[in-house]
Amino acid sequence: MLRRFFKNRPPSSAKKPTRPTDPAPPETPAAAPAPASPLEALLRLPTAQAAASIDAVDAVDDLIELALKARGELRERVLAHPRLAPAPALTALEKRSRDKDKTVNRHARRQLDRRRTLLHEAEAAGKRAEELAAALTRRDSTGQDRAWRERQHELHRRLEETLDGYATTARQLAEFGDVLADLETLRVDRATLPAVDEPSAGDAPAADAPTPDAASSEPANQALAEPFEPLVDAFQRLDAAMAAGHPFEAIAAERQSVTERWLRAADQHPPEPAEHQIFETVSHRFHELADAVQRLGAAAVPDAPPEPLSWPAPDTVPARTVWNEIAQRDRQLHELERAERSVRWPQWAAPTPDLRRLRDCVAALRTEIAQAQQRRDQELTALTAHLDALASAIDDGHLGPAQSLLAQARARHDALPAEATRELGRRIGQQAARLAELKDWQTFATTPKRESLVEAIATLARTPLAPADQADRIKSLRQQWQALGPITQAADGRLADRFNAEAEKAFETCRAYFAELAEQRKANLNERRRLCDQLERYLQDTDWRSADMKAAEQIMRTARDEWRLYHPVDRNPGKAVEARFESLQGQLHDRVKAEWDRNLAAKQALVTEAETLIDADLAVAEKVEAAKSLQRRWREVGVTPRRPDQQLWQAFRKACDQIFAAREDARHAEDAALAELEQRLAADLDAFASRLDTLDVSAATDAELREFRHRTGDLERLPAHRRRALSERRRALEQAYGALLAQRERHLARQRLADARHWDVTAAEAEAAGAGVPSAEDSDAVSEEVVAARRACGGPVPTADLQRLAVRAELAAGLASPETDQALRMEVQVERLQAGLSGGGRDLDVAALAAAWCRVGPKDASVATLRDRFFRALDVLHEA
Hints:
There is one protein chain. By secondary structure, the chain is an all-alpha fold. About 70% of the residues lie in helices and about 0% in strands. It is built from 28 helices and no strands. It has helices at about 40-45, 45-55, 60-70, 70-80, 85-95, 100-135, 145-175, 210-215, 230-245, 250-270, 275-300, 320-345, 355-395, 400-415, 420-460, 465-485, 490-540, 550-565, 570-615, 620-635, 640-695, 700-710, 720-770, 785-790, 800-815, 820-835, 845-855, 865-880. The longest helix is centred in the C-terminal third of the chain and has 53 residues, at about 640-695. It starts with about 35 loop residues before the first helix and ends with a helix.
């Protein structure tokens, strides 16, 4: 039926919950605890934070699990989650919550019922809209008269209302993931309907129109034929109300009103066959219900089910009055069943309150009669078992037990209904006759035994035993005497008197012993009272706001041990003292237990913190420090009961062990990384040492040394004890390479000095030939600035300047100057002193002196001697 109004919907999919990865077990003897699942972690969060995190849960199975575990506001938030709204999710929720959570199961069933109701409403509205749309386009046999046009407008209004209701239901079903078919195509533009004109004064009434007299007795809006569609709807609603069990008086009044409207409409023109069928069906069901209501009113319905009988305990025999009451209720049950059958209530109609009360009475009486029948069967079985035991006792010759069993059997027989125990009554008579015969025979057999017991007790009185043994022997002889059964002859009575007299004589030796025991019991009783007084003073005098609860726990346990030492005591006074002791112990236990509960709660909180710390987003070192802090707080918690404390300690220790195991894993990983780093650094040092062994001085570069230092820069990450040897070796390699670089630099300096002299000679030759100063493209020792300065020189050869430069070089190198230049040498020394060079400064810079020489020109062959002196001094200065 619903396929016309519903489109195909894709099946809802739910992600399966992913299982968190199990962490590596810690290297401890105890097994690592399983980590808390994400759902358990969410449930441990505060309510506000957990509620905010629910939206991130998108798996239906996880949401169902949360709904079953959460409570209060959090559970309401889970149940309101959009992923639990579709029908498959609600069905799964209802199945999972059966016999687990009534609230969640009730929510799921209520939502599923609401969805079913909406589906039925949608189906009915869809069918009704199609019928109204078809009726709106159907042409009436009366033609284009005013009544037809008014009916068209009325059908259009009802169609619009139906489609609006259908759209509302579709929006509500969309919350459950159901998609309804679109019926908007059934809508009809009101402008396309024929207009309803006001009737003119000259219009003649129709042939079937009512006369003015008849019309004056009806409302103006009923002068025309009323459409059958609203009447059909009214009858259908009336049928639903009857099936739902609405009050019959209201149903009857509504049915009368609708029937009159139907008949007035039928007087104008006949209804459709389908419409008439609905009218007939509902009318027939109404009459069927009315007859049943009338029959129910004539039946005698009790005001309430009878009060249940108060049955005695299972080991107690019910009285005969109880069975009489059961018989009366059985007759009442037959009368009520007959009344229920006479009502013949329709199966399709819901029962009225009177009928439900009648059925409740019948059900209660049936249950009670069945229980009574079961109890009667139990009593008959018990009576049969007593008779079987009685027969066995008689067969074995046990007179005393047989007499007791006979009395019990007669009591049960007299309490049961007479009609149920006729056969068992005959068996009781037979066993009573057998018991009387047994009694006669036992009397004949027991007299010699009684005489021997009298002689034994007399011997015990003449030669007594130790007090305790004497009392036990007297008790044993009395038990043997009583086992022989009751006295039935005068001779046995005289033997009983002799036996009692001798027993009194034999007991004389035990009286002092028992008096001593009485004194001991009295002393024990006094000690127990003293113990109670001490406990009471301790409870009253102690300031429990700052009490030592560990001492209180010790007192509670010690008091119990001391109490057991003072045993035995007299029974009756001992009960009162014991009650007082238990009351005081209870008060002390309540005090201690309150402290236990607080401390257990504190330790449980520490366990929760430790378990939460496992998955916390913290560094391992921070987790370890936090775990150590938790352990210190654990030790500060006060007394707790041993077993719960051990359970909490196991959970706390597992959580801490897991944290410390993570630290050990981190340490191992760090050690492995350091070992790998140490191995790599050693390999780098080996490679660099091999490079030094084969490296030419000219190939040494600063870049290679920087690269080596950068490559071995991770050496500082190693601990001091592990990097010491590597650091010394690295330092030695750096020094060795630095020596190569210094040697290379000296070689290059000598080369540059030679290049400068060669360029100066070449430039002098060019100047002498008039070719001009050459460039310094092929020379690393002469810069373009020197070349430009040389080219700018003119005039004669500057012999004085060159001589001064040669003396400066010789003075810087510590070489002697010719005798002819001594005055100049002294002048240069004075200039140096005045410049504050103190023997150093620019005169020690070989490159600067060489550049100064090359800058001066022009030169010719006459300066060759000065050139030799100058560059020989530079060579000495360079080597120094």
